[in-house]
Amino acid sequence: MLLSFNPIEVTSVFNKIKNALVVTSCIVAISGCGATSNINKPVLQATNNSAKNKPNVIYIIVDDLGIGDIEPYGQQKIRTPNLQQLANEGLTFNQHYAGNTVCAPSRAALMTGLHSGHSQIRGNYELGDFTDEREFGQLPLKPGTTTLGTVMQDAGYKTALIGKWGLGGPGSYGTPNKQGFDYFFGYLDQKQAHNHYPTHLWKNEQWFALNNEFVHPHQSLPEGVDPNDPESYKAYLREDFAQERLTQDALRYIKENQHNPFFLYLAYAGPHAALQAPEDEIDKYQFDETPYGVKSAYLPQRRPRAARAAMISHIDQGVGQVKALLEKLGIADNTLIIFTSDNGPSKEGGADVEFFDSNGDFRGYKRDLYEGGIRMPTIAYWPGQIAPGQTTDHASAFWDVLPTLADLANVPLTTKTDGISFLPTLLNKPGQQEHDSLYWEFHRPNGFHAQAVRIRDEQNGDWKAVRFFKQGQRKNPPIELYNLKNDPSEQQNIAAQHPDIVQQAKELMETSRTQSFIDAWNFDFWPNNKF
User: Is the same domain home to 401 and 463?
Assistant: First the structure.
């Protein structure tokens, strides 16, 4: 499902962005002022921080992969032996959270160290469409934004993004090369990433042609076509698989930069729909299938279960190749790998997430603020530094990654964040700070809003509160409350039994955010004022 805004808003939006750049009060994503007492204090700026002897960092993020989709978290039907080996030799997180429950705001939280109550980008604000001619991308990050890229550049690292971006389209001021990445290869527009056989990717800010003819990623089988006949799908098949291009470019980049400390952000676009993979990879899985393609929202797929499994196994193979190359080059002991996903699993494109038990024991999927939509499969690997075969219950989130890598690279931050470094957890050292609370908000352009907060309580368990602003519940909607220690699947709403915790959650929901400069990302905005 494409979450888009009315195109006539675009000019107004960019005018607001320009105005926001000269306003120095109350734009938290830049200045951090306003109700920000829970944001970490900034420290002094680093200058020409030497990168000598600093570890390389490879941060691997995938798209719409649920916590139950890989073997380290109990997956039985999809083969991911390399991720299992990574977990066997590293640290598995039981409670690591995405920045949001959809792509752009989740990645914005990762890039900026700000949760979605303070971030510039709080939803999928889509510009243009799915055609090459109108590839306009998403709302871009503002110039001067502190990102993972700029922090690692300040630490003396070479920086690269290979994969999906989604924080600024072609020609905008949000492109990776303008946001701290020396090198970029991949998708600028996340709508283009709905097709894993696109006509092109981008290399830095130049069009990079692939050997594929254009196919629209959102279409159905023609009427009268037999959905069980392999011939019916030949029109949608292409040869140049973009996800393999990403793996090969990552391997090349590592080889060429093996003697320089580097930060590689490797962002695969799978297993996000459309469900596509090389046919010989799909052939390796034999499931009972129901073809997808009759009145479908994404590209038709005769074997959707096998296709999704093949997409995940292909990513697993890429992770294995990266790890093997590091070992061959003799730099594995000096390289931290973190693997994660950007939000929970999606049912789009014919994905049978129930069949795969993709969200594990948790409630909810992509676009939910229940645990299944935001609790992520996350593994950290660093031979000689991270003890093998360990797990952690430390509660962390995407906005912790920026301060963690700054801590690792010994570079002071210049801006405030919502994050706490989890480097002590990685290295199994004392002194790990804990969040008193974690906060999320989610917005759709139709006026649906949601909030969630997790509250730490060492005596009584971890509280999780969720509320939804929707038709008929737009003024102080009811808050659902769960105890994750006793009820990790969020099945028992115990709000009535704990009014004090509900009130605490309500106060956090009201004070953990500031107004966005985008009207549709504020809780007092309703399209056409329809109540």
Answer: no
